Amino acid sequence: MYVAVKGGERAIQNAHAWLAEERRGDTNVAELSLAQIREQLSLAVNRVMAEGSLYDPDLAALAIKQGRGDLIEAIFLVRAYRTTLPRFGSSRPVETSEMACDRRISATFKDAPGGQVLGPTFDYTHRLLDFKLAAEGDVPEAPAAEPRMEATPHITTFLQGEDIIEREAFSDEVPGDLTREPIAFPAGRAVRLQALTRGDEGFILGMAYSTQRGYARNHAFVGELRIGTVPVEMEIPELGFCIEIGEVELTECETVNQFKGSKTVPPQFTRGYGLVFGQSERKSIAMALVDRALRWEELGEDNLGAPAQDEEFVLSHSDNIQATGFLEHIKLPHYVDFQSELELVRKLRREAAELAETLASREAAE
Amino acid sequence: MSDYNFAYLDEQTKRMIRRAILKGLAVPGYQVPFASREMPMPYGWGTGGVQVSAATLTPDDTLKVIDQGADDTTNAVSIRKFFEKTAGIATTERTARASVIQTRHRIPEAELTEDQILVYQVPIPEPLRFLEPRETETRKMHALEEYGLMHVKLYEDISQHGAIATAYAYPVKVEGRYVMDPSPIPKFDNPKMEMAAIQLFGAGREQRIYALPPYTQVVSLDFEDHPFEASKADHPCDLCGAEDSYLDEVILDDAGGRMFVCSDTDYCRSRREAGHSGRLGGEAA
Fold first, then answer.
1. Which of A220, A304, B117, B232 is positioned for an S-S bond with A255, CB 3.0–4.6 A?
2. Is B282 a catalytic residue?
3. Residue B283's pLDDT is what?
4. Please, what's the largest Cα pairwise distance for chain A?
5. From CA B31, how far away is CA A230, in angstroms rounded?
């Protein structure tokens, strides 16, 4: 009987074996290849790369396969792998104004240099289940055009000419890295943005949504949303110049927000910023809204006590690996703690009963 | 296993953790922030303790891992295997033979010695957290030694329940300075914290390490008229007959039959090996 409370190595081994079997599913069905996941579940791959903070579509695909499609599990696998990797150095900042855009839209101007490019978007699809997909079949080739070779300037640069939007302060400061330094508050915008870009998509979405519904509303226009690839360059000290080490796909969102002005600043537009690995539109827009909400102090706005304005609250709860770990750990054994609570509640009940008895007998005597 | 560095973490990371440990030992009870890494087990599974152990272990060490006092609970087995695999060190279930003991929720019953290190897994390192959720505020409160809120909480417990309604993770004051969370050990274990061994506390998710050097004064918070009391189930162990050990209550049947057994499995086994026996000692062991 006492054996029942023993965990045992065998139980763990057997659980792992069963898990592997369940992951594979019915062996009469062909096994998924990493290439299939990478090519056909690319938005899941993108999310795992973004929140795993590691740009590697093949590893992300492997993690998704190993995690049985549980994306948080996959993100965890990637994070645990990432943390063991040596750091050779850091890249130069990527230049998103020179992005080769697959998609680029602005909600603030009907047209602008670089044009409105819808790209591969769900936006205007009708969400009707396409039963044709249930059967395998070839996809007709999409019409193609000559790609634009020139750079696509950011929409906000047009507003900047008029000085009607805030200028981002230039800084050569090395941004903090929350994976190498424990986070301390106030964290500063760079670390905040790092936390947001690797934060849980659902959490960031909920926070952003709350600002739209009036919890620290900062009415946001999507000044621009662009998706495409940018080269990543690294300066090699021995060479004395930069070389391109690869390219990454990014989604960048810049919002244009109202700002009434303050004592020192005339009315002008302000910005929120979102930048995420891969095609991660929802995440980058949400990130920009939350970034803007968190900037209240810097812009001299009122603290409305809204959750999305609270840096410590947002940053302490945005990481899904931390959150899921702590949440799920309550299924681990707690019987020592529970036993002590049991003793305490029994003791308190005994004392309460004794007290009630004394009062009752005293009343009866009177 | 050659794919990973000794005890999994790279040497730079271990150095960073050792610095935090040394700072913690220099300022007993103070929570030192450290750049906690993602480990291959989830946050909440003891990543803080595992990182502290990894930074503490040497190839000559013998490791013991317990969870709820037991060596054979699933997570204790899992962590012990992790270090067997990544550090190739010797492991033991015998408290006396271990040089490093990683624990969750208990302090072993056997007295520890100066040659041992006890590593605790800590979920929430901040004793004031449930009184004040903001880290920015609680850090200030520690800096100013402003612990009034804690005393008010304990007082309110007494006025409402007639007793301090904290049974585990019972707050302590270290060397008359820092109020510290002893991790979720039952308050029965609190008095043992004044010990010969080094005690290290690791909170991975919360990125904090704190420490108690040997023989540090550790006082459980209380009031003169409501002194601290280290309580346990009022039974002897049904297997080994011990009257001085912390007990788990095990439900035996549908009729509510129970037995009480030592939560420290090594202590219980050692006693039985020495010939002690409890009420059910013969049949269940």
1. A220
2. no
3. 53
4. 101
5. 42
Taking chain B (285 residues) in consecutive chunks of 10 residues, what is each chunk's mean pLDDT? Answer: 79 96 98 95 96 98 96 93 95 97 97 98 96 95 96 92 90 98 97 98 97 98 94 91 94 90 96 94 55
Q: Is B207 on the interface with A (CB under 8 A)?
A: yes
Q: Rounded to an integer, what distance in angstroms lies between the CA atom of residue B172 and that of residue A240?
A: 57
For residue A47, the number of C-alpha atoms closer than 13 Å in the C-beta half-sphere is 19
Return the closest-CA partner of residue A52 out of A163, A197, A182. Answer: A197
| HEC string for B23-88 | HHHHCCCCCEECCCCCCCCCCCCCHHHHHHHHHHCCCCCEEEEEECCECCCHHHHHHHHHHHHHHC
ipTM (interface predicted TM): 0.87
CB contact at 8 A, B170 and B182: yes
Distance from the Cα of residue B135 to its chain's centroid = 23
**Among candidates A83, A185, A339 on the partner chain, residue whose Cβ is nearest the Cβ of B249:** A339
Contact A104, A114 (CB under 8 A): yes
Residue with tokens 């021995």: A238
Q: Distance between CA atoms of A91 and B55, rounded to whole angstroms? A: 30
Strands B117-121 and B100-104: parallel
Using pLDDT thresholds of 50, 70 and 90, give the confidence band for residue A263: confident
Q: What is the pLDDT of residues A125-167, one digit of tens each?
A: 999 998 888 887 788 899 998 888 889 999 998 888 888 998 8
**Inter-residue contact A137 to A126 (CB < 8 Å):** no
Residues 2-31 of B with CB under 8 A from A: 4, 8, 10
Close Cβ partners of B126 (under 8 Å, ≥ 6 residues apart) = B31, B135, B138, B181, B206, B208
Helix, strand, coil percent values for chain B (each to nearest 5): 30, 20, 50
